[in-house]
Design a protein that fits this description.
single chain; about 550 residues; alpha+beta; FAS1 domain; 3 domains; seven-stranded mixed sheet; 21 helices; about 35% helix; about 20% strand; elongated; signal; FAS1_dom_sf; FAS1_domain; Adhesion/Biosynth-related; Uncaracterized surface protein containing fasciclin (FAS1) repeats
Length: about 550
């Protein structure tokens, strides 16, 4: 029996070390098939099992010799990474430090727990099958619908079942079979002796909970899996699938699934929503609670012996399942996706007009509207029916070239438009002479190109509200600078151009659009090229 236990321990250690190197060429054996006489030879010849080999030598008993015996044995062999993970769990710097410090008898127990009498090839395993180790303990086989095999030990709770995945199977020797696994299996006695934490992490709870599948998908889409994994002691308010379905329905026909969050801005928005559900403390108390979304808090409301949660809307989230204890905090499953004010503002913005619509509905900007049409710039400011720069499969569709041009402004690539009034355009036309009575007078290709340059000289990339204006030069979409000039003794600004003599005043500020903001001004701003053109029309009456 002692010899058998030694063999089992050796096999276990071998499996543990072999699998660690299996990430690259997992099943490679540096021996010819004729040279493999035992599972011990398989272990010794596979660089992926080097940690297992070291463990066999460190454990009590003579496991390598035992593994050369008649068998047959089935060995679940942890890879090197499995030893590294256990070392980290127990507070050691690496697997070498673990093997230098662990009790040899305890190590022998761990390794023997990985050994099953008889040959059990991967094809013969069934979901839910119990395997008796040579120690008399049981391991459980879990096989998913794709045929992926996991081996569950005493650390695996029914709610998680995140067992040791079989990553390479049926490495055979005359006296047995070796299956590579990615986790060291632990019996209950070892768990108690080493005081190992067996509760799942918050992410493991979410991943294994059927009603949180959309939440997990959202975490993956927003690259927040690492953030949740790295939580130390936190509370996660986890919206269930029905809560996400309600959110998608409220967003309208354009949002039917997470796939419709398909550009950088929308994905960032989804990420902000998720961060809003992470509270840095694992203890809930009634009142305002900070969240992982900076400068945003949720209201924790004592209700019927538990808690509800308030956001920037008028509807609170109720608790479906409370106080799920995880290794790194608590999970509260809730029935609503919480929304911070910044998200509500963004969603409201999607319902507003685009910049082109603002120009169209303002009677005092009809000449600007005519000019945009004459220069084919209407679609530039029309938000392209609120479509996004979808990458990947949509790059070849008919509208992609138009949507992705630098001159098109969408709700996630906003612009600031300085919109001259009709009166401002009339002053410009008068200055140009009798041949220019309306926008239609710009009837040659050169004149239309000039008019387009003048219009783009009124556009600044990014959304700049009046409160954000600051004195200095700003480069316009046309490539030329305008000057923001502070009016002495006031908190207002005027705008200077290449004429250098008459500045434009902001007549009406902050007309918000989903793809930017418009400020109505009382002068048509002119770049150098326009000033030169007008002066050439009538040198005696030039405006410079």
């Amino acid at each position: 029996m002692t010899k058998f236990r030694t063999l089992h321990i050796f096999l276990m250690v071998f499996a543990l070390f072999a699998l660690n190197s299996c990430d690259e060429d997992e099943g490679n054996i540096n021996l010819a098939e004729s040279e493999i006489n035992s599972v011990n030879d398989v272990i010794a010849a596979n660089g992926n099992l080097s940690s297992l080999g070291a463990a066999l030598k460190a454990a009590s008993g003579d496991l390598p010799t035992t593994l050369q015996g008649a068998g047959p044995f089935t060995i679940f062999a942890p890879k090197n990474s499995a030893f590294t993970a256990l070392a980290k769990e127990l507070g050691y710097a690496n697997s070498t430090a673990l093997l230098d410090n662990i009790d040899p008898t305890l190590l022998s127990t761990i390794l023997t727990y990985h050994v099953v009498a008889g040959e059990a090839d991967a094809d013969s395993l069934t979901d839910g099958q119990a395997l008796s180790t040579v120690m008399g303990d049981e391991l459980t086989v879990s096989i998913d619908e794709d045929g992926n095999i996991q081996i569950l030990d005493a650390t695996d709770l029914p709610q998680t079942e995140t067992g040791a995945a079989v990553s390479f199977s049926n490495s055979s020797a005359p006296n047995g079979i070796v299956h590579f696994i990615d986790k060291i299996l632990l019996p209950q006695g070892v768990i108690e002796t080493l005081s190992i934490e067996v509760r799942p992490t918050i992410l493991e709870w979410a991943t294994s909970t059927e009603d949180l599948t959309i939440l997990v998908s959202a975490l993956k889409k927003t690259d927040l899996v690492g953030t949740v994994t790295g939580l130390d002691s936190a509370t996660v308010l986890a919206p269930n699938n029905a809560a996400f379905a309600d959110l998608l329905e409220s967003l309208g026909d354009d949002y039917n699934s997470l796939d419709d969050f398909d550009n950088a801005t929308e994905i960032a928005l989804l990420g902000d929503i998720l961060k809003y559900h992470v509270l840095p403390s694992s203890e809930l108390m009634a009142g305002q609670a900070d969240t992982a979304l900076e400068e945003n808090s949720v209201e924790v409301i004592a209700e019927n012996g538990g808690f509800a949660f308030g956001d920037a809307t008028a509807v609170n989230a109720g608790t479906v399942t409370a106080d799920i204890a995880a290794k790194n905090g608590f999970v509260q499953i809730i029935d609503k996706v919480l929304l911070p004010q910044s998200v509500l503002d963004f969603l409201a913005l999607l319902q507003t007009e685009d910049l082109a619509s603002i120009v169209t509905r303002e009677p005092g900007l009809s000449t600007l509207e005519e000019a945009l049409a004459a220069t084919d710039l209407v679609t530039t400011f029309a938000d392209i029916t609120n479509e996004s720069f979808v990458q990947g499969e949509d790059e070849e569709d008919d509208d992609f070239a138009q949507r992705s041009t630098p001159e098109n402004f969408t709700y996630f690539k906003p612009a600031t438009v300085l919109a001259p009034t009709n009166a401002a355009f009339q002053v410009l036309l008068d200055a140009m002479g009798a041949d220019y009575t309306s926008i239609a007078s710009f009837d040659t290709d050169a004149e239309k190109a000039l008019l387009k340059e003048i219009l783009l000289y009124h556009v600044i990339e990014g959304k700049v509200a009046s409160a954000d204006l600051a004195a200095g030069d700003i480069t316009t979409v046309a490539g030329s600078d305008i000057s923001i000039i502070s009016v002495v003794g006031t908190d207002t600004f005027v705008i200077g151009d290449a004429t250098n003599n008459v500045n434009a005043n902001i007549a009406s500020a902050d007309a918000l659009a989903r793809n930017g903001v418009a400020h109505v001004i009382d002068k048509v701003l002119l770049p150098e090229s326009a000033v030169a053109f007008i002066n050439s029309l009538n040198e005696d009456d030039g405006i410079n």
